[in-house]
Amino acid sequence: MTSSISTNSSTKETSTGLMAKLSGLRNLHVVIGILLLATFYVSVCNLAFAEGSALHVSDYTVSLFGKYLCYALLALAVDLVWGYCGILSLGHGAFFTLGGYAMGMYLMRQIGDRGVYGNPDLPDFMVFLNWTEMPWYWAGSDSVLWMVAMVFIGPGILAYVFGMLAFRSRVSGVYLSIMTQAVTYALMLAFFRNEMGFGGNNGLTDFKEIMGFSLQSPSTKLGLFIITALVLAVAYVVCHYIVNSKMGRVVTAIRDAENRVRFVGYKPEDYKVWIYVVSAMIAGLAGALYVPQVGIINPGEFSPLNSIEMVIWVAVGGRNSLYGALIGAIVVSYAKTRFTAIMPEAWLFALGGLFVLVTLLLPKGIAGMLPGIMDKLKGKNAPEEEATASEPSATDNSATENKGSEVKS
Amino acid sequence: MIVDKTGTPITETENIQPDTRHGVILYVEDVSVSFDGFKALNDMNLYINDGELRCLIGANGAGKTTLMDVITGKTRPDTGKVSFGQQVDLLQLDEAEIANAGIGRKFQKPTVFEQLSVFENIELSLKGNKGIWASLFHKLNGEQNDRIAEILHTINLIQERNYPAGRLSHGQKQWLEIGMLLAAKPRVLLVDEPVAGMTGQETERTAELLTSLAGEHSVVVVEHDMAFVRSIARTVTVLHQGSVLAEGTMSEIQSNPEVIQVYLGEEQG
Amino acid sequence: MLRINALRMITMRLIVLRLAIVLLSVFVCTHTYAQDNTNQTDSSLALSNIAKQLPKAKLSKMPPLVKQLGAIKDPKSRLILESLLEGELYYERSGFAIVRAQMNDDKKYVLSYLLTDAQQQTVSKSKIKKIRTNNRLRGQIRDVLAKLDLTDPDSSVRIEALKQLIDKPNDSAIQTIKELLAEEKDEDVNHLMQVILQVQLLKTGDDQQKLAAVEILKTSLEPAVKNMLTQQLAVLPKKPTDQQQIVLKKAITDALDTIESKRQFYGVVENIFFGLSLGSVLLLAAIGLAITFGVMGVINMAHGEMIMLGAYTTYVVQLIWPHLIEYSLFIAIPLAFLVSGSVGIIIERCVIRFLKGRPLETLLATFGISLILQQLVRTVFSPLNRQVAAPEWMSGSLQINPVFSLTYNRLYIIIFSLMVFFALLTFFKKSSLGLHVRAVSQNREMARALSIKSDWVDAITFGLGSGIAGVAGVVLSQLTNVGPNLGQAYIIDSFLVVVFGGVGNLWGTLVAAMSLGSINKFLEPITGSVLANIIVLVGLVLFIQKRPKGLFPQKGRSAD
After folding, report:
1. Distance from CA of C557 to the nearest CA of B (A)
2. DSSP 8-state code for residue C49
3. Torsion sign, CA atoms A228, A90, A393, A369
4. Cβ–Cβ of B66/C556 closer than 8 Å?
5. Predicted-complex ipTM score
6. Which of A307, A392, C176, C306 lies 20 to 30 Å from C206 when distance is taken between CA atoms?
7. Which residues of C touch A192 (CB under 8 A)?
């Protein structure tokens, strides 16, 4: 193996970087292709086949898939900071929920006078609390543009402020993880209070319509599902670009040897804040897409357990690989749906067991096993790999394989 | 505030030009550092001339690594002044800014980015804008590609260019780190124990390389291997208990009674 | 083994403390009995003499009899008087024995003999006749009873009687107090008597007397004093012209200010006390975490569940030995230590040791374990909260002065957590195992080279940290409900304590826990507990800016 690399690289020196990129691109096309095909398939089956047909996909299932795609988007965000930058955020639920609240506020205003109290100006819960006017931060919440902006700005500002404070003072490792968890915990406590003006315990719910489309109608549900899939595809491309740019390499370097990066002249804290903010915004976006599909947002979403579940999606799927995050989110969420339906008490046992097993036995997740499986399928000998070398070496291997075939042709 | 020769403030640290009209590029004056009462550096005074090759020797705990930590911004001294040329106060800059200003460092324990390839390690170290947006939209140009190839050639890692750096041998990692230093085109190179773990042949090549670098760069080498020091040294500084004990050519040092006493004392103890 | 000894020592000390209290009360009781015995023959003679007269006495002849009864220092005479006051004093038509008669549900009367030890018996109304009283007589009886209380040998009875009087003083009681004041040796009782007299003077005296009373009363924190002062201030004209009134008004205002500032002072002291008790709980919860984090560099996210297991151990102990509630904590503390400690060792051996050098993975794995443990408890004990009983000796409070008291449970918790702290400190300083643990925490490689079995040290450390968490659980079971989520509430707080205090220094943990507890308690009344939590959190994030390694960082090159 070793000799083949060196002979190849000596024969055609400059092609390797290019080839790695090409293989990355192919990878990108495959993921996006599968995603779009699946979306198309679900949509067609939902519309074209009547209920009762074997091929019919029910409206409920469409919504469920929509929810999974939101989770996948969220997992992408977690993977970006954890897999690539080594920041184990146990508080990404905070960004997700903030994005969700931004959307929820907008949907709340869309209810208009159709609420229980029929007040055209105030959402129900404010009437219930005997408030006479809307708090200042609700101003503008009836505009779509404002909502879209807040979906990014809310989580972005939180991530920026926290990141500046934490990364500047070089808080890292478990310290940082617990701090992020403490932040989402504090937010949960705060949002539970009625005085916060976000509906307290009950959160925001009873939504009627989004941009004039009824949230109850199947076509809106399908539309939301398709939009989520498209947003996920775009986000995937963006993340793919980031991790394959020089930026991505700096970030990986920070993950492996932060101090060394400093002495090369990069400011790790700036990079960390940047990637943290980007990740937070993606998480916020996921939350915003999630809320109209499930019809409610409440402070329970801030719960630290939720944030940790996101981490386990990425761990199961394989961190340091973007498609791994998608796989993990969907597989674990699907398992959760099945488990909680069949035996609800067992879910926490299963989840807990998953944490332990994945960290002990599967540090690279499903994505880490894929290259080996593919090789076996192709009938080739699995490349000898050190236990420590992970994703980059894996792409490296595939790159050399591709190159081998190219040389032959 | 950092100003350039004409007195205008410099915002980008990579544009810093140290003022070396007096021939000195690095001033370390009256610097003291203590850890929990232990004085790692004790009123240290050290001047490195522009373009010279200087060897620092001294027993363990003499303050060699702490001195490098202070110069590169890793440790803040309790008192004293450190400046790059006459006008650039290094104590106001952080590690990244100091690196960008033109002071490169090779660590005692070779630290490279193990998950990245050898090529990428060099790429990241290239002199240039190290900001976020620049990195995000960065494309290697032909000149930079050539430069990387040239460095890979110099450090003899052409064949391993696509290896993850973690798979290199100890000696190769030392070389890669030197290569990363070269890529940054620093004015001053601080090299901590460059030949530890190298074979005799590799050591010889390292000596050659470091000697050839002097002149264009100022090189400060910390080394325990006295044969190696003798082979490259022009001026040697002996550190003892956090301050400079003696300074001079190798033969002057070897005949210095204080140095002999300290070293013999060490051996007897 | 040393740690078990340390715990046993703590338990012993508590037992000794209890024993001392019990002995003291026994002593007080026997003391009073001894006094009674000397007068017994005299008093019983006098009593039976009066008792003979009572049935035949006319109302007009009653007052001297009551007076005589009051002069007899005997519980029986007191009982007679009380029965008379409540209209339950009768005599049997046959034999004229005086009895206390209480009507039962069948409209029959239950008789208790007041002078003889004869059995109770139930009779119809026709067998007995009531001894009559009127309002004036009842007033006299009350005075006599008050005087009896005020001369009671037990000072706490006297204080209680005086406290009754301070709110509703009457002339005859004041008179009695005046008579008794000179002979009163007990300082507290004496002080209280003075206060009552002065309050009375303040109410009824002339301006000169009032002024003198104010001077004395400004040192008293009794609520009645404050009320009376406020009342007097209100009585005075708004802009007094009389010179004396001006002086008086100023004196009263000053006195009120003095009292108010004292009350505020004690309010602060009380807050500190609450803060320290919260801090002690935090200390107990966090110190195990600090140890494992300091030595192994890993965060055990299941630490909260170790606390929970300790709390459930207490619950189970009380379930198995319901008749031993008083001693349940002494059983539960070592047991909880063992239960949580062994679970900790199992976790370390089965999971954590395979994740060496990967702290973030350890965090995730232990989080998984915490989920499993929570669900396990839910399955075994139900998801509902369980009530753990508090032993008698944990309830009640220590009254320092009228506005400030220390509740015993908080007091014991503070003492206990400090004992645990110092026991740990001694363990780390003095024992060879402690030395090994410290060596591993400072430089694992070097310790290994010195043939310290770092694996073994890890397991013991983890067991120790978890065991202490279990002990913390026992303590927490006395303060809150025991439920599956008990631990989760404390893991973040505990971690903040560790962050604040710095790693690898137990003193840091102590200071951090106590200050975080106090800060919380001082903020709470101002901002509410949720906001207080948030403020503390934000404050801590900012603190880390200045001191990334906590209050007491380990310095030196090896630290990073």
Report:
1. 8
2. H
3. negative
4. no
5. 0.85
6. C176
7. 530
